[in-house]
Amino acid sequence: MPNEPLIDALAADLAPVRRRRVGRELLVLAGIGVAELALVLLLGGARPDIGVAMLLPSFWWKLLGLAALSAIGVITAVCSFEPAASPRRGLRLLALAVGLVLAIGWAIDSGGPVTMPLAERLMWHHGLDCVFRMAVLSIPAIVALGVLMRHGAPTDRRASALAVGAASAAWGAFVFAFNCPSDDPLYIAFWYCLGCAIVTLVGRLVLPTIARW
Amino acid sequence: MAAAQAGNGGAYRRLLAELDAWLARYYARRLPSAVADDAAQEALIAIHAKRHTYDPARPFKPWLVAIARYKWIDRLRAMARQPETELPDTLAAPDHEQGVVGAIVLAELLASLKPAQREVIRLVKIEGLSIAEAAERTGQSESLVKVNIHRGLAKLGRIVQERGDAE
Fold first, then answer.
1. Closest Cβ opposite residue A20 in set B45, B46, B53
2. Residue A21, Ramachandran bin (φ over 0: left; ψ between -120 and 50: alpha; else beta)
């Protein structure tokens, strides 16, 4: 057999390994998420009028919507770091969920009073700041998921990278939602989508090269 | 594999020898003979490096097939990146017949490409002709031969990625 020396070398190199467990990885990620959120809140990151905001449907819409999106994204990504698994079904579900969240946001928006012109509602200088903070807050997630992706064995690297990017984006936006003073669904839909798109794109472009194996 | 994860070298050695034979058959049907051996070696190394991702509660075969397929796609993409690298004659010549007839699955896949792409991939990558010879044979310019090989192999990689493996 031509590969005899290689086989000998690999067998000689054999050391016991700790098996990869999806449940353990999800727990670690949840821990990181809770720690990040706690840190942001302890450092005074919560919006000052959070008590009033909690009475508004749009506050809960963005919080619960983003929590659901990041949960779907994280589970899809982590489950795909295994050779025989594909993230594509999870990605379709995620796309569907994004559509659903946006539809609910539109419903909330059309129920509210129409007051300001479009340009004023979007407040672009505020918006850019939002996008920046969102991206920064997604860094812990993208790093942690990137490490797990490298450690695992994703066979559909590009799709896994897309799942990691989307999950991190929704995660960053979720943490930022506690800080963001806006309750206007249009503003949220526009700037959050932009911020999430940037983070997702970065993940999709960078991670496949990092997680080669 | 469960024994190997725990560090049992004897069992692991036997497993690798079996896998080596299986991989040799797998790639013989899917790649030109000149690169099939390299692919099998890479797959063995990948199996070793990623052995912690196997869950003994699940069947072993799908895990193995997924890794073998991943390295197959890798190989197709690598071939697409360097269309001008010709296979050395010494490698292609001895088992020329087997190289052409053996890669059944690859031949089936080639059928889904455009005729111009299919033809030059067959000539250069499987039969081992040079770019110039393939250009002369098909009437395509040399740069067109390169482009067609590149696009065709890249497309094959995508096709394999998209569809589930039949095995």
1. B53
2. beta
CB-CB under 8 Å, A213 with B53: no
Nearest in space to B85 (alpha carbons), one of B140, B125, B138, B136: B125
With beta carbons less than 8 A apart as the criterion, state whether A119 and A48 touch.
no
For B40, which residue in chain A has the nearest alpha carbon?
A: A3
Could you tell me the pTM of the whole model?
0.85
Mutation target vs A (from B50, B73, B162; most A CBs, 10 A cutoff): B50
The two structure tokens encoding residue B63: 């895990």
- Can you tell me the ipTM of this complex? 0.83
Interchain CB distance below 8 Å, A213 and B49:
yes
A156-188 pLDDT, tens digit per residue, is 999 999 999 999 999 999 999 998 888 888 889
